[in-house]
Amino acid sequence: MSIALSVLIALVLDYFLKEPRRFHPLVGFGNLAAALEKRFNSPQESKVTAVTAAGTKGRSSGVIAWSLAVLPLVLIAVLSQFLLESYPFIAAVLGGIVLYLCIGWQSLLGHAKAISDPLQAEDLPSARHAVGMIVSRDTSELSEQAIASAATESVLENGADAIFSAIFWFCLLGIPGVILYRLSNTLDAMWGYKNERYLQFGWCAARMDDLLNYVPARLTALSYALLGHTAIAVNAWRQQAKSWKSPNAGPVMASGAGAINVSLGGAAIYHGELQDRPALGPETGSAPSEKSVRDACELVNRVLMFWFTVIYILMAVTVSIQSASL
What we know:
This protein is mainly alpha-helical.
């Protein structure tokens, strides 16, 4: 039951304390990552856009930087978890605190509310500013519907990235698992761009994040479908996920859009370039609005409660089986 207790502690801490505004460990990790990039990301190697000898060297540098950033902290977590095996309650509390620092439940909902409230009040400048805090596309001239679409997509995608993938890896591998996931996800957010600077150096960070998100993203997509408009979500997932630019965001966003019956996707401007993105969700779904942002948040909350219930039941069954075998 220690895993369920840790997850409960993490959710309670996140609900009441929100994301730490000062002294968050990930801020320090980000500074470490920036220093490693400065040391290992050669300007000459970063300009290589093909897998040549120089490009391979750029990738190797990225692998070394990723390893130096992530593996020592994961090894410390492995050692800590080993030393606490004889103290299950302390291990559960520590696990809950670490998991709390690795999820962004209330932070995600807070960002969404900062967008949906101005949309409801028809305050587009404030809504544009708020959505610009959580998406990488150009938001300076977005219409009301485009703002709502960007926010809804972000809530659905980050539900997986910021909450469910972290919980998945904690349940699977404990503290080392969730630290491995969160640090890898942070490096992908910093280095995983397909531009001149990061195409080779950020290759490892991007691939590791894809690998670690593969299973939890599909579990999230399945959960969205089960707790929403199931048939519409499954159909959108089956038809649209493979055409999306990200192998993990595609299933999550397509299923999520179908689950709340909203039409998302379409063209958007990223870094000054117009990208014609595939559609997400049913063609006959409702148009994005402040309601779809709130619907996405409610879906994430339902899935989170569903996951906790499943975790609790699985842990209770495991304890019962172990007790019966003694």
